[in-house]
Amino acid sequence: MMTNKKESAVDLGGLSRRSFLVGTVAGTLVMAFSSGLSVLAAPAQEALEQKLFSPTIWFQIEANGKVVVNITKAEMGQHVGTALARVIADELGASWEDVSIVHVDTDPKWGVMITGGSWSVNTSFKTLSQAGAAGRKSLIEAAAKLKGVEPALCDTENSYVLTPNGNISFAEVVQKSTVDRTFSPDELSVLTLKPKGKHTLVAADRKLTQ
């Protein structure tokens, strides 16, 4: 498993101290960091719709179930976008075939955008893992409500939420649910991440067509 020794030595733009919002906006499940703790007074969906966040959006799930990951590191021939997208997709439980990436423009809202010295994955792994886990938890909660089951009995795999009452695709969850979830920094820090043995994409020998 990748270590994060360099992460503690690098200022990530305060991202670890910001709340994480998950909400459906115009039929799309959006994941974003809030601009401050004051946003906790409003529902996540309202905050997203009113743009009460500096749009540091790591990824979104579109109505067709496609997962779009925003890459903040420069491509230097090593397919860093593929590596970072795998981290989110693995935690989320997304099918690799549903994942695409977008290299974003330079902007302070993305935090530190240094590329070099093998820092890209090291400094992003924990943040992206937590973002993926938050997305997974939000999808499971929404799917469990749709299926009338307990979230603890559900899991995600290949862009589906697996439930005792039948599986439901990410696309269907996004289309049929109003996801409204806010994770505080403390809640993000204790989210259960997948153990190394359950990773199917991280370190896998597969490239992403950009």
UniProtKB/TrEMBL annotation:
Record InterPro entries: AldOxase/xan_DH_MoCoBD2, AldOxase/xan_DH_Mopterin-bd_sf, N-heterocyclic_Hydroxylase, TAT_signal
Name recorded for this polypeptide: Molybdopterin-dependent oxidoreductase
**Superkingdom in the source lineage:** Bacteria
Please give the Pfam families that the UniProt record associates with this protein.
MoCoBD_2
| Limits of the Aldehyde oxidase/xanthine dehydrogenase second molybdopterin binding domain | 50-180
**Annotated SUPFAM superfamilies:** Molybdenum cofactor-binding domain (SSF56003)
